[in-house]
């Protein structure tokens, strides 16, 4: 009982109450080191609404862009808002913020190297599962956790997390396994692709007298300087990086099927007319000739495999851009007979 009375007496003392009321924390505990990464601090007036912070954030719902209301004098300001309940204080938002001064700060970001401070890119990176060898060098080099991951024995890129820094492409040992796709100027890219393919097809067709006699084991090679083709592409879009990237994609993956037509061997049996799935081959009664419309032709090889007289020839062309330059680049073209059954001669 006496101990209880003593505790009541101690708590009731005026000096104890005064000491409790004016208690101060040790200043060394209050001060945080420079490297401490607190919740991000936002300076809305610096924001340019690029969206780099939202793209880099690995935590769902931790950051979003909002826009203040318009006034009579000016449009509303767009800026990021941080949800502290979702934020993991990784600092990626501050790291990728391109403004100077920064729109977002959160202390010294010592876990990410300075060279990864980037502007949001117009390139979206994807992995070609056909070419990927699962070496995981892209995963190991990626500065953003979770941007590249493995699922069902496939290496995938999460577009919502990827900051398009290009490290995966730089470190991939297989050409074409990681691809940078320009997400803007889509229609322009289509026009450039059609321009390249149609030009190459026309150029190859001009050499058909040299291609037609090729035997199964023979290869015909020729070069096409791209300088004039590049100038035509620049009339479509002014982005040289996009143009060069398109040339690379075409020359890396395009396998062009070529159908030649030797009218001198034709016996007018019309087997090809009936078999052609696109109506590209027709019989002209007045001229007594079999005609092939190159615009309708699908290069499917049906005529080649149907004709018993070898009128149609079927070849495959592959391409290589070397050197990888718009000013000095040359497309090396290799043509050989397609590995299909050959009709009787």
UniProtKB/TrEMBL annotation:
InterPro entries for the chain: 4Fe4S_Fe-S-bd, 4Fe4S_Fe_S_CS, PSI_iron-sulfur_center
CDD domains: MtMvhB_like
Domain 4Fe-4S ferredoxin-type: 38-68, 78-107, 123-153, 154-183, 257-286, 288-318
Keyword Iron: yes
Gene3D superfamilies per the UniProt record, alphabetical: 3.30.70.20, 3.30.70.3270
Keywords: 4Fe-4S, Iron, Iron-sulfur, Metal-binding
GO MF: 4 iron, 4 sulfur cluster binding; metal ion binding; oxidoreductase activity
Keyword Kinase: no
Highest taxon, organism lineage: Archaea
PANTHER family: PHOTOSYSTEM I IRON-SULFUR CENTER (PTHR24960:SF79), PHOTOSYSTEM I IRON-SULFUR CENTER-RELATED (PTHR24960)
Protein name as catalogued: 4Fe-4S ferredoxin
The species this protein was found in: Methanobacterium formicicum (strain DSM 3637 / PP1)
